[in-house]
Design a protein that fits this description.
globular; alpha/beta; Isopropylmalate Dehydrogenase; eleven-stranded mixed β-sheet; homodimer; 334 residues
Amino acid sequence: MAPSLPVALDAMGGDKAPAEIVAGAVEAAELHGIPVVLVGRPDDLAGLNTGDLEILAASEVIEMGDDGARAVRTKKDSSLVRAAEAVRDGKASAMVSAGNTGATAASALLRMGRLPGVSRPAIATPIPIPGSTPTLLLDAGANAECQPAWLGQFARMGSTLAVARYGIERPKVGLLSIGEEPAKGTSLTKEVYGLLSADPTIEFIGNVEGRDLLSEAVDVVITDGFTGNVALKTLEGSLRFMASQVFSALTATDEAAAVSGPLLDVLAPLAEKLDPETTGGALLVGVAGVCVIGHGSSSPRAIVNALKVAHEMAESDVPARIGAAVNAGSTEGS
Amino acid sequence: MAPSLPVALDAMGGDKAPAEIVAGAVEAAELHGIPVVLVGRPDDLAGLNTGDLEILAASEVIEMGDDGARAVRTKKDSSLVRAAEAVRDGKASAMVSAGNTGATAASALLRMGRLPGVSRPAIATPIPIPGSTPTLLLDAGANAECQPAWLGQFARMGSTLAVARYGIERPKVGLLSIGEEPAKGTSLTKEVYGLLSADPTIEFIGNVEGRDLLSEAVDVVITDGFTGNVALKTLEGSLRFMASQVFSALTATDEAAAVSGPLLDVLAPLAEKLDPETTGGALLVGVAGVCVIGHGSSSPRAIVNALKVAHEMAESDVPARIGAAVNAGSTEGS
């Protein structure tokens, strides 16, 4: 077997870039054998321990506040754009960034291109479920306004990813709405309900609600990028809020604080399971290559997990499988 | 001062109706001096302790699964419709139901009518914030698809309610979107952003995100009824999920269970503060009368709180204040 291509990591993206991003890369390479190429400004990387990692020089940086598509057009020598080009040019197997989400998606879309037959790529974000496989939510923000057929494709892409990433045999696909009945929701959800019901390639279980995102009853939740992003941030915010409230309660009284040790011991694994850092990040599905989008606050551990996911998804040829799923039974396609 | 009109309570609505609904009504009347009239099937109420409460007979019941508007048209002698008519006819000051939300809103809308100048009523749901006033989210589900001008009115109605219900002097109004920048979101949110920015009668603080729903940074969050309902159910589901995970963790090991007593003592008040039962329920704003929509799972305590809120909102003439706010500076209106 030929040695694997490296994963191109945007060393400049993320709240803790480049130091903690690079630390994660070195750990992934040295401890987990993941091949990685760092993409970034050589001057910024010079003072850091980059181990044996190759560096692909890029002179510009897309900032968190930059407009995604515009930044990709104007900063052609940015680490994000160069990482996407490395995948396009067959020099890297996948790209990973914890930087500007919109710019990451735009880099991948504009440099790698869409898979044939795909109308719009979508962000598939895993929601960790303790004791079970994560639930994939898509679109989590790539397309604020969607046409019904796009959501039909999101269902096939998400379903394929749930098989590839989590080994779920026949993922249960739900449509995010405001009631179980098919007639509940907007004109968009009602039309998508019809499309998903008629698609023999997926296991559609009907409408699901916001509260089902954290349940084991559904594996893939389909929605437009506006609703998906609002739901995801509401969920993350609520879990974080509750965690901080519980931890303050545990230290609120001397009596509670005195006995909180054993409790923190059991709560820590729970926090770990719910931590977005352990999920390995979101995937941009529908582009002609693997693109993993990490949380902006990614720590070295989050980067290790994101690199692992990127490597695995490239090794198991997920983009090709997604393309095949989207075009199955279609007379269009490439 | 003339004796207050009673609040009309749908005794048949809610998962625990009629027994626990009636128990809440009796408690509200006897312990808190809230005048209440029970609306429901005399046969179903006969075996219950209804104290000194007057009963307004209604022979039909709108079930949880019924379609809201259709049920109001076909079940003209239902407890919900009769409760709304009691308000319309000046026999009750307000209506309260823990039953079918859509049918409650439809009853109020079709029997009381809209306030002059109001395009669409909205459901304003309070989200409890420990240590602060609740955040009002509207629309939480009355209108799945909205026009920009409706959301402009929701902002004025929500702001007026936040003043009346929580005594907030100048409520901070945010627009739910997927980024702080005005250009983030859908064509709907972008247009509403412009409307709210130009409205001198409200304190618009810009876009807010899902994670801000539980923060003190915003008092009133404006969105369409689809997004609002998804966000609300996601938030409730996430808090409930986290609470159940924490409580299982507290009993997961013998060591944890042995010391969990003092922790449960400090966690209980937190659970209490976050419990939707303590908020008194959602208000349908924009109709010509007070309509409080309780949680389907309402306990007697939730009913007591809902009756208190309904009574207070009627006493302080909230519908008239909302109507005035919607029409302020307008050349239309009545």
